[in-house]
Each structure stands twice: as C-alpha cells, then as structure tokens.
Design goal:
four-stranded parallel beta sheet; Rossmann fold; binds iron/sulfur cluster; Alpha-Beta Plaits; 3 domains; 19 strands
Length: 584
C-alpha cells in the first residue's frame, strides 16, 4: 500500500478513497448505500437520525455521515445490530408521526415511507402520539405547506435555510420530547422573512414541508370548455423533468414536454426561453444606460423572485440597484394576456395562463399585485416541474414514448442565450453576449464565457474587456453569497458592475420545484450541462438575434426600454423591511 493510495474494506470488498469527507460518501462512491434522513451532501453533516449507522471493526457502531474515512478500516453495512438500530429508529419516528400516508402530498416520494417498507416495519412497539398532541398545519405561505406532525426533526430544512440562504427562518424550539422545528418566533411561515425558495422542502425527507399544489386548479381550467389554456415552460424544466420518467439528469426533453402539455389539454404551448431573450434585450439596454450614466451600479439581476424578496425584506436601501425588468415568466404572461385574446377574439378572463417553473418562489411572484393587469394576475397559476410530472403520470401519458413536438409561435422561438438562464451564470453570460454587440456594434466571436459557468462554485468574479471598456461581473448563487456581495457594496469594496443572483445553489436547475436531487450533488451540474448543450446546438445563440423578438418590438413594443416596453416589461419593488420587522 503506497502513501497516496488509501483503502478500506466495506463488507469485505476493498475500496479506494481519496478526499471523501465521511464514510457515507466512500460507501456511495463504491456503489453501495445506507439509509439516511438527515445527511445531505451539500449541507453540514448533522448525525441526528442514526439511520446511516455502520459497524466498524474495533470501533463498534458509528454514524457513517460523521465519521471520517481512515486507511485500513473494515466496516460492515448490514449486520444484525445495524439493521436492528435502523428498524428501532423507524418505529420511534412512526410512533410520533401522522399516519395519513395515503393522502399525504409526499406519498410515493417520502423517505420515511420508503425505509419503513424496505425494513419491513409492520408494527410499532412504542406508545403512539395522542390526538391532542397534533399541531395545526401551516398553509400561510404562498409556496409551501408545513405540517409539523410529519416532522422527524432531521434538521435538514434548518441547515438548508441557514447554509444556503444565510437565513434563520426555520429553527428548533423547545426541548426534549417537546422539540419542534418552526419558523422564527413561532409565527406562520407566510408571516416571516421566508423568500419562498423551497430549498427547505427540497431537502425534507417527509411530508413535513411540501410544495403548495396548484394541480387541481390547473385541471379545472384545462377541463373547462369555456377557457383557452396557454402554458409557458421555463428553461430549467426541460433538463430535469425526464428524471421523473427514468431519464438521465440533463436529458433535454423539451419536445416531449410540448407534446405532453398538448395531450394534457393545453391549447397553446409557448416557451419562457423566448421571454428570457426579451429580458436580455431590456436588461442589456438598461445595463448599458447605467454604465453610461454611472448611476445605480452595480446592476442587480431581477429574475429570481426569492432574491428580489430578500432585497425588499432585508436591504430596501439597495432596491435602486435591481434591474426594473420583470422576470422572463412575468414578461411573457402580460404579452400573452394582451395579444392572445386579441388574436383569438376572446376576453382575458376566458383564458388562463399557466407557467411551468423549477421554482416554488414563482408561486409567490405570480401573486404580486404589480404583476397583474386590471386586477387580473398576469400568470394565473404556477406549476413546479414536480407537479407537472405528477399530472403527466396521473393522465396515464407514457412520457418517454411521446413523439417530440415544437412550441407554438411566435412565442416559442428562442436562442441559446435564453436556454442558459436556467443555470447560475447564464443570465449574466446571455446579457454580456448582447451588451457587447449593442455597445461596440461588432460581432462577439467567442460567445462561451466559461468562467461564468459551474454549479459548485457559488461565487465567481469575472473580468471582461468590452473592446477597451473593462467590466467586472459577480455571479453568485445562494443568498448567503449575495449577502457577502451586498456587504462589499455597502463597505465601498465592490469592484463589479453587474451582480447576478440566483437563490438556489447552482441556479434554477436546482430549484425547489425540481425533482428530488438532494442525495446527489452532481445532478445540478448534469442538468446545467444539458442546458449548455442545447445552447451549443441551437442555430441562434444571442438574444438580439431572435427574429420573433424583433417582430414583437416592431409590431407592439416599439424598442427596448421604450415607454411601451416599460409599461409591460418592467416593474417596481416594495420596501418590506418595516412590514417584516413589525411582524416578528
Ligand atoms: S423557503 Fe427558503 S427562505 Fe423560506 S424557510 Fe425554506 S429555505 Fe428558508
Ligand atoms: S421539516 Fe422536514 S427537513 Fe425539517 S426537520 Fe422536519 S422532517 Fe427534517
Ligand atoms: S434560483 Fe431559480 S428556482 Fe431558485 S428561487 Fe430563484 S428563480 Fe426560483
């Protein structure tokens, strides 16, 4: 054995390891696994649930998520003792758990349900929770539902909120058998500074934190013969939905999604990538105007509603930095709300606009009063990727056997710049592709700005040369990183002119509404690569080269940043600091 070759033995099999932080990662790398509720590779190990126990020769029972690997260790995964401990943990959790599995939002994807079945838990030997101990379900949030009766105190949500968003919205309260996880000060989730990112629900192994479902609302409009239904699909959905149908992460299924949406009954299928191109036309123009005037720099991107709300809640003094551009979803909906009824000869309320998003915060965004026209929300309903997958399954559609279709036009045509919005760095890269050509009048030859890409590095600073003009762009994902950037600006240390923020680690590819991915941190990169592949393969890769965008300006919006464009495509923000402060 050489110094740099480290090995251990798992169930008698020799396994090499390098820099894995704990035994659990070595076990997984060797193609094996042990159950866990609380371990999430992107979060600090907690060692709370005791499901990942292994027997280490000479050391006894150890939690594999907290024990570092050592050369020569001999470990056993499924001994009589480890299986007995796991089964006892399951029984104890079930004794204290709501048992409405059949009607639970998480049924079929709940880890407690899965392990109880795998470990053959058929009876519970411990006293069960009494009816009077049940706590009320909290559905005050526009995006999430919190059912404390299904919480197993794994702490994953508390760590996700803190470590990703730097936000102590959720925390442990009380002690001993009275311990609960709850929003700050015991308030309902809808009344605290939650930004609706859904990262807590994404890591929750049970039905204690789930996405607020709009599936029934959407079925009711699809099946209503008096409604025309129009749908748009966000960039990141296409590279993740396939996972719910056994396809590899990153597989671009947009053609199958278009076909599935028509089979579900939607009348018109458009693509949010189109309005990502529209966003770039507006945002690149706004950025160049600010560069020229030197005002309100750095410019903050504004397409992530969790980030926008964070700024409104915590730093209203910085709102002037936010681009006034609506998000791509909220740009496309008002355009559709005006032009589709005109084209079809119907009234706005005879049409419903649905958006398929990777994002739980979009459920909040679509309810913002300023994103409505004549009192009617521009986007009627937001469905997450996961909700769409469930609708497709419940309709009995064999997703993988569909013939790929294309979206309807003109709002279905898009460039590669629109596609890459779904990954952290994508908005800034798309903006620079257009801003360069707008500013210099010359063709940008090398359009792949690879330094902006990558889902594991949550903060990147990229220096660019716009033909003599030096430009520095900061790309961050997670609000924890955004907060660092804001501090730098407030302390006068910031040296960047544009700040792209996505609240979810790695961007929308890893949004709270995407299929479960918290056991495997590589999935978000695989999804991002799927988007960059589509970008490379598309004939047009710069937003300002999209002919349908030019037509829309020529026929309706006049020009980027025109009065008309401002009326429909731009928005205003709210100082929520006082409101949120008063509510604590
Ligand atoms: S949605 Fe986001 S901000 Fe709100 S509690 Fe969950 S992790 Fe925290
Ligand atoms: S709400 Fe979910 S993630 Fe949070 S502690 Fe409870 S079970 Fe764990
Ligand atoms: S990063 Fe994307 S998915 Fe996450 S909250 Fe922001 S817009 Fe939604």
């Amino acid at each position: 054995m050489t110094d740099d070759k480290k090995i251990m033995f798992i169930d008698g099999k020799e396994v090499e390891f390098t820099n894995e932080p704990n035994l659990l990662e070595v076990i997984r790398k060797a193609g094996m696994n042990v159950p866990t509720f609380c371990y999430r590779p992107d979060l600090t190990p907690f060692g709370a649930c005791r499901m990942c126990v292994v027997e280490v020769e000479g050391r006894g029972i150890q939690s594999s998520c907290t024990m570092p690997p050592e050369n020569g260790l001999k470990i056993h995964l499924n001994t009589e003792k480890t299986r007995r401990i796991r089964k006892t943990v399951l029984e104890l959790l079930l004794a204290n758990h709501d048992k409405e599995c059949l009607t639970c939002e998480k049924s079929g994807s709940c880890e407690l349900q899965k392990y109880s079945e795998e470990y053959g838990v058929r009876r519970i030997r411990y006293p069960e929770k009494k009816l009077e101990d049940y706590l009320p379900v909290d559905d005050s949030s526009p995006s999430l539902v919190r059912d404390p009766n299904k919480c197993i105190l794994c702490g994953a949500c508390v760590r996700a909120c803190d470590e990703f968003q730097g936000h102590a919205v959720l925390g442990f309260a009380n002690r001993g058998s009275k311990t609960v996880v709850q929003p700050m000060a015991g308030k309902p989730l809808g009344q605290v500074d939650c930004v609706n990112c859904g990262q807590c629900a994404a890591v929750c192994p049970t039905g204690a934190l789930t996405i607020k479902s709009d599936i029934e609302n959407v079925w009711s409009v699809i099946t209503n013969p008096n409604k025309k239904t129009v749908v748009q699909i966000a960039p990141a959905v296409r590279v993740a939905l396939g996972e719910m149908f056994g396809l590899k992460a990153g597989t671009n299924t947009i053609g199958l999604i278009d076909a599935a949406l028509r089979k579900l009954g939607f009348d018109l299928v458009f693509d949010t990538n189109f309005s990502a191109d529209l966003t770039i036309m507006e945002e690149a123009s706004e950025f160049l105007a600010r560069l020229k005037s030197g005002e309100n720099l750095p410019l903050f991107t504004s397409c992530c509603p969790a980030w926008v709300k964070y700024l409104e809640d915590q730093h209203p003094d910085m709102l002037k930095h936010l681009s006034s551009c609506k998000s791509p979803m909220s740009m496309l909906s008002p355009v559709l709300a005006r032009l589709v009824p005109e084209k079809l000869g119907i009234k706005r309320d005879e049409m419903s606009i649905v958006a398929i998003m990777p994002c739980t915060a979009k459920k909040f965004e679509c309810k913002r009063p300023e994103l409505s026209t004549d009192g009617h929300p521009d986007t009627d309903y937001v469905l997450t990727t996961k909700e769409l997958g469930r609708m497709i399954k419940s309709a009995g559609i064999d997703f993988n056997k569909l013939d790929a279709e294309t979206p309807d036009n003109p709002f279905g045509e898009y460039t590669g710049a629109g596609t890459i919005f779904g990954a952290s760095g994508g908005v800034a890269e798309a903006a620079v592709r257009t801003a360069y050509e707008f500013a210099t009048g010359e063709v940008l030859e090398n359009i792949d700005i690879k330094e902006m890409r990558g889902t594991s590095n949550r903060s990147k600073t990229i220096q660019l040369d716009l033909k003599g003009t030096k430009l520095t762009v900061r790309v961050v994902s997670t609000l924890r990183e955004a907060e660092i950037a804001i501090r730098e600006i407030k302390e006068g240390k910031a040296d960047f002119q544009m700040l792209e923020v996505m609240a979810c680690p790695g961007g929308c590819v890893n949004g709270g509404g995407q299929p479960h991915s918290c056991d495997n941190s590589a999935i978000k990169q695989e999804r991002a690569e799927g988007l960059y592949k589509e970008d490379e393969e598309l004939p047009l890769r710069k937003s300002h080269c999209n002919p349908s965008i030019h037509k829309l300006y020529a026929e309706y919006l006049e020009s980027p940043n025109s009065h008309k464009a401002h009326e429909i495509l731009h928005t205003v923000y709210t100082n929520r600091f006082e409101y949120s402060y008063k509510n604590i």
